[in-house]
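Box 3.1 A note on notation
Throughout this textbook, protein chains are presented in two layers. The first layer is the amino acid sequence; the second is a C-alpha cell string describing backbone geometry. Keep the layers aligned when reading.
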Amino acid sequence: SSTADSFIRFQDEGTSKFSLGFDNGDSTFAISTGSGLNNNQAVTIDSDGLVGIGTTTPVFTSGTGIMISDSTQANLRLADGSDYTDVVNSSGDLFFINRTSNGRILFRVNNATEAIRIAEDGSVGIGDGFQNLDPKNGLHITGSDGTSSGIRQSRAGSKIWNQEIDSSGRLSWGFRSTEAGARTQTFTLDDSTNYV
C-alpha cells in the first residue's frame, strides 16, 4: 500500500507481542512491542541508516550511529561473561561505570598502548608504564623520559613551564619562551634533597 504500513505481526496465543516492518508514516524500518508500528516502537532505522533505540527520530550532528533515548536514563551495557561496564547518560551527566568490584577503566591508543588508567580507588595513571599495575597516588605520571613523564603548564602569550624527572633521577623545573625554544632550567632537586 502507498499509505499503510507493511509489517509482520508476531502473536502468542492471540496476543500481539511484536511487529516488524516498514512504517509508512515516517519512512522507517521499525520493530515495535505492539500490534502495529504506530506506537511502542523499540528500534527504528531511518532512510539515512541512523538507528534509534527508544526514539523514532535518531539525530546526529554528522555521520551515522546508534542513538539510545530514555526520559530518565539512557544506558549502553558492554558485557564480557559475568563482567560488564555501563556507559550512562543521566540528567546531562555522562558516566563510565565498571561494574566489576576491582575493575579499572583504561584508555588506549594505537590498539595496544595504554594512555590513561583509572583504578578502583579513583587513582589516575597517565603514561604507558602501568601495564597490569595501578597508579600509586591520586595522580601518577610515568614515561620513558623526562618529557613523557613531565607535567606542563602553559598560558597563551606567556612562558611554558614544566616539571620533569631527568635522566639522573633528579626532579627539575624549567621554562621555555616558545614551543621551539630552548628550555631554561630554574631549579633541580636530587634524592638527597640537594638543590642544584
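The mean pLDDT is 88. The CA atoms of residues 108 and 114 lie 4 Å apart.
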